[in-house]
Design goal:
about 20% strand, four-stranded antiparallel β-sheet, binds adenosine-5'-triphosphate, six-stranded mixed β-sheet, alpha/beta, 10 helices
Length: about 270
């Protein structure tokens, strides 16, 4: 029985697209991540939430190989990223929290360039760039410089650039930032369709009603560890019939919003 459990556990781990064990990271002696355990499988849309400064971006950047110096184990597609070389990065898409687009390029140039970096042939990269820009309602602006784009338009270009090489694992930091309500609906549908086709989507956001609606699983990072992990319904069953915003306050043990707001107003009114 024991042997079977071990076997099943190791098979489960092999199937995981992403597997993190006892991840720790400190900056200047202060532990930001202090024993994070996490696994993700194909078809999951995981909302990664937590207070400001909890270490969400740090976790994502470690998985992308952008932050070194951690301890613990990070496996993507079954391989330890410390031993994996760079090939696995072709299977990853990433939308960073702060965009670093090459503003002097047009969207067509930027997307074709990004596609080529991921190994697409130039004509295939350009065809996909055009299709994605069409899909996002930006075909009219494809030959304009990205520097002239609005915030939401830039966000769409970033989303397009993270998807055009058809990655299996997609990391999104605040993916809906700056998008209007119609665009939010398109992206939500898109993420669901991608997940249904076997992709894994791992995103972090502070917009709780969006997280509540689009995540098949919610992982809450607090105090350097995973403080809650489950579907919204599971978290709700644990915490009472509450909104995700209220559960977030409860799970991070935060109840002082009124007092803090009052202190701020008092400080503003002081002569
Ligand atoms: N390069 C760095 N050097 C020093 N400290 C850092 C560095 N990067 C991040 N930190 C610190 O690590 C902590 C976690 O930062 P991180 O950006 O991962 O948080 P987050 O959960 O993504 O926050 P937010 O929700 O505000 O985006 C913060 O206290 C931050 O100041």
């Amino acid at each position: 029985m024991e042997a079977m459990n071990v076997e099943a556990a190791s098979r489960e781990r092999e199937e995981a697209v992403l597997s993190i064990r006892d991840l720790r990271m400190n900056y200047d002696g202060r532990y930001v991540l202090n024993g994070v355990d996490l696994e993700a499988r194909p078809k999951q849309i995981i909302g990664y939430i937590g207070p400001n400064g909890a270490g969400k971006s740090t976790t994502i950047k470690i998985m992308l190989g952008l932050v070194k110096g951690y301890t613990g184990e990070v496996r993507l597609f079954g391989q330890d990223i410390k031993e994996a070389g760079t090939e696995y990065k072709r299977r990853i898409g990433y939308v960073p929290e702060t965009a670093e687009l090459y503003d002097s390029l047009t969207a067509r140039e930027y997307l074709t360039f990004t596609g080529e970096l991921y190994g697409l042939a130039p004509e295939s990269a350009e065809r996909k760039a055009k299709a994605l820009m069409d899909g996002f309602g930006l075909s009219h602006a494809i030959d304009s410089r990205v520097s002239s784009y609005s915030k939401g338009m830039k966000q769409k270009v970033l989303l397009a650039s993270s998807l055009l090489h058809d990655p299996d694992l997609i990391f999104l930091d605040e993916p809906l930032s700056g998008l209007d309500a119609n665009s939010v609906m398109v992206i939500k549908e898109l993420l669901e369709l991608l997940a249904s086709r076997g992709k894994t989507i791992f995103y972090s956001s502070h917009i709780m009603d969006v997280v509540e609606k689009i995540s098949s699983r919610i992982v809450l990072l607090s105090g350097g560890r995973v403080a809650a992990d489950g579907s919204f319904e599971e978290l709700r069953a644990r915490g009472g019939e509450k909104s995700l915003e209220e559960l977030f306050n409860q799970l991070t043990d935060f109840h002082d919003h009124r007092i803090i707001a009052e202190r701020l107003v008092t400080a503003l009114e002081e002569r």
